[in-house]
Amino acid sequence: GKDKGESVQMTDPLPSWNEGANKKAIIDFVTKTTTEGSTDFIPVADRIACFDNDGTLWSEQPMYFQLTFAIDRVKAMAKDHPEWHNKEPFKALLEGDMKKVMSGGEHALLQLVAASHAGISTEAFNQNVKDWLKTATHPKTGMHYNEMVFQPMLELLQYLQSNDYKTFIVSGGGIDFMRVWAEETYHIPSHQIIGSSIKTKYEVGEDGIPKLIKLPELNFNDDKDGKPVGIHQHIGKRPVLAFGNSDGDYQMLQWTTTATGYPRLGLILHHNDAEREWAYDRQSHIGKLDKGLDDASKNGWLLVDMKQDWKQVYLKK
Amino acid sequence: GKDKGESVQMTDPLPSWNEGANKKAIIDFVTKTTTEGSTDFIPVADRIACFDNDGTLWSEQPMYFQLTFAIDRVKAMAKDHPEWHNKEPFKALLEGDMKKVMSGGEHALLQLVAASHAGISTEAFNQNVKDWLKTATHPKTGMHYNEMVFQPMLELLQYLQSNDYKTFIVSGGGIDFMRVWAEETYHIPSHQIIGSSIKTKYEVGEDGIPKLIKLPELNFNDDKDGKPVGIHQHIGKRPVLAFGNSDGDYQMLQWTTTATGYPRLGLILHHNDAEREWAYDRQSHIGKLDKGLDDASKNGWLLVDMKQDWKQVYLKK
Ligand SMILES: [Ca+2]
Ligand SMILES: [Ca+2]
Question: What CATH code is assigned to A2-60+144-309?
Answer without folding.
Answer: 3.40.50.1000
